[in-house]
Amino acid sequence: MSTPEITTILGQGSSFEGKLTFEGAVRIDGAFKGEIRTQGTLIVGETADVRAEIEGAHVVVHGSVQGDIRALEGVELRTPARVRGNIASPSLEIEKGARFDGSCIMDTDAPAEDPPGDPVANNADSEPVAED
User: Fold this and answer.
1) 35: enclosing H helix or E strand
2) pLDDT confidence tier of residue 92, bands split at 50, 70 and 90
């Protein structure tokens, strides 16, 4: 992926808490806590500490993210990324040296907070099927 032109930067040493919505590309190098929603690209820099629920078209992580990530196009985890949370995206690229602790659903229709599991165990409460 070619890097889009970054329109906004939350710089190193800065912090923000709340809801961030934007178009285009945003880079976070500081601390952020809350929600991030975009139709564009979010870049989490190496010095960033993000604790948020993230929804975007494309998410590139170099720093630390705690929270679920849902991307319509793709997620990239670049060294030395540290992600703790679930990812829902049709494309996931994890570079050697990046850390990911969570579940991944490779389907944009599935919510990030519902990790994949054993389909038989997930239907344990359903009626048994009679066999002939």
Assistant:
1) strand 31-38
2) very high
